[in-house]
Amino acid sequence: MTSSVQATVRPSVDADMTAVTRIYAHHVLNGTGTFETSPPSESDMRARRADVLGKNLPWLVIEINGYVVGFAYANWFKPRPAYRFSVEDSVYIAHDAAGKGLGKQLLTELLAQLERRGVRKVMAVVGDSANAGSIQLHKALGFQQAGVIESCGWKFGRWLDIVLMQKALGEGDSTPPDSTH
């Protein structure tokens, strides 16, 4: 059983991007949660963050004793206007901070912020059907599996699946969305 660590979740700032880039690079080089195979530069990560924030979507970090140990953000699921109430989440925790409940703290706050912004559906596209940590995190927060796309990625000399998960926020699809969004 994992124990929860007291940490602070907050909006990211430019100064966090060195740590964010390092955390993500570890996942690119050592994990199957992302299908990227070459770590993006800090400049690339800054541009990705600016893109997300420019869409009025959150990019959060979690820190312990002033050190960033994880990040989470959401981006539109697809760019077409009809998808403007649906996002895909991303959550990454430093490898030495995994299993302490930090992902749950981050994703809980991300979901709350998305709901306040009028988002109605959050999708998780989990890299690797063996990625028990991410699948369990999403299940713990009410996501349901929507399907598996088998063998759609090639990394580390093997085929990888993606697990599609979904969660409705707020009124979900029970009412029309707010026309101001």
Describe the protein's architecture and organization.
The protein is α+β, with helices and mostly antiparallel strands and 181 residues long. 28% of the residues lie in helices and 32% in strands. The protein is built from four helices and seven strands. It has helices at 17-30, 42-54, 102-116, 132-140; strands at 8-11, 59-64, 67-76, 86-93, 121-127, 144-155, 158-168. It has a seven-stranded mixed sheet. Strand 6 and strand 7 (158-168) form a beta hairpin. The longest helix is centred in the middle third of the chain and has 15 residues, at 102-116. It is globular and about 40 Å long. The N and C termini lie far apart (41 Å). The mean pLDDT is 95.
Largest pleated sheet: 7 strands, mixed
How many strand elements? 7
Q: How much helicity do the residues have?
A: 25-40%
| Average pLDDT over all residues | 95
Strand content: 25-35%
Question: Strands of the largest sheet, in order across it?
Answer: 1-2-3-4-5-7-6
The helix-strand sequence is EHHEEEHEHEE
Helix count, per DSSP? 4
Structural class: alpha+beta
Poorly predicted tracts of residues: none
Assembly form of the protein: single chain
Radius of gyration based on Cα positions: 16 Å
Features:
seven-stranded mixed β-sheet, 181 residues, alpha+beta, 4 helices, single chain, globular, 28% helix
Describe the protein's topology.
Layout: E1 8-11, H1 17-30, H2 42-54, E2 59-64, E3 67-76, E4 86-93, H3 102-116, E5 121-127, H4 132-140, E6 144-155, E7 158-168
Parallel strand pairs: 4-5
Antiparallel strand pairs: 1-2, 2-3, 3-4, 5-7, 6-7
